[in-house]
Model the fold of this input.
Amino acid sequence: MSDLCPVCGNVANFESEGFEGSTVHCLRCGYYKIVGTVEGILEKAMNMEKEKRILISGYIRDNQGILLTSDIYYNIFDSIKMPKVDEKVKKLCYYLKQLIQNQVQKLIYLMEQMLILKLTVQHI
Ligand SMILES: [Zn+2]
Done:
């Protein structure tokens, strides 16, 4: 297994789980699980049209945590179409908004911890 996302080819982190497949954390696709058979199909389809990989990646992005099975894989191309530019922009803005909110929440948490630490030190 490489350290590249089987869907989009970007660098990804993998977790081993108790099923025949992988749990993937990809910057582009996000978090998903993929069964070994689909992973194999994607590995063999190295020259798959870029548009198809983008469709799968977008589907995963919209359905975080999904298990990418053969059924989903074979029906994806019938059920979804390439989004128009304005839809892509909306999705990107939504993603960036979530990313920023998560970072702000982390920052607030760290500031609270620093404040608690400062107050603790003052009372020692
Ligand atoms: Zn990916």
